[in-house]
Amino acid sequence: MPTSAHINPTDFVSAIKPYLRGQDLSGMVDMIQARWDHKQIADLFASADCDARKVAALAFGLVGAKCCLTKLVPLLGDEDPVVAQMAEHAMWSVWFRSGTPDANHQVCRGTRALGRGDTEHAIEHFSRAIELDPQFAEAYNQRAIANFLLERFEDCVGDCRKAVELMPFHFGALAGLGHCHAHDGRLVPALKCYEKALAINPHLDDVRQTVNELRERLCLLRDGDCE
């Protein structure tokens, strides 16, 4: 059973490397769950050892829980781009499994439907997930994506706002809210949403480009002088 002791970063990396080399994901998960809990792993996010931060983010994506996500957020701005990328991937992984088992299942079915272009059925699955677990932020975010694709922008805004209410650092939902505002010509609210998303996850390159374009457009609209 896992203990509450702090993990030695070097020992942690050494223990996981053989599973990475052998591409033994299930074995890695079993080993992690037998030796440590997600809170111990989350403590490694503040480690000075870059490899430990990388591997901790990877491990958290596999076994982490949403109660420790706030500890993961700072890694999104890590000076090492691989650490930041691993942190983003881990965050999405935890978000997708943060509902009840039945709600998680419905979101998985919804994302598969979305992937094959069956957007209406995707919305049905996401809505069912929300009925099963009204606190499941990712169910709202996924339904927002589906509503955006169907150009139901008011519904998309409502779902994005609910996702952010439940998960304030959900940079994906904030960016989605920005997309809705931008589509409707509400440039200032769009810019604010994009800036909030970037403040959480500075590596959203497409969002950063959009922010720069919006700032230039707003500058031209105000006084025509952007120097």
From TrEMBL:
Domain of life: Bacteria
Positions annotated as TPR repeat: 103-136, 171-204
Keywords, sorted A to Z: Repeat, TPR repeat
Gene3D superfamilies reported for this sequence: Tetratricopeptide repeat domain (1.25.40.10)
Pfam families hit by this protein: TPR_1 (PF00515), TPR_11 (PF13414)
Residues making up the signal peptide according to the UniProt record: none
InterPro entries tied to this protein: TPR-like_helical_dom_sf, TPR_rpt
GO MF term set: Hsp90 protein binding
Name of protein: Tetratricopeptide repeat protein
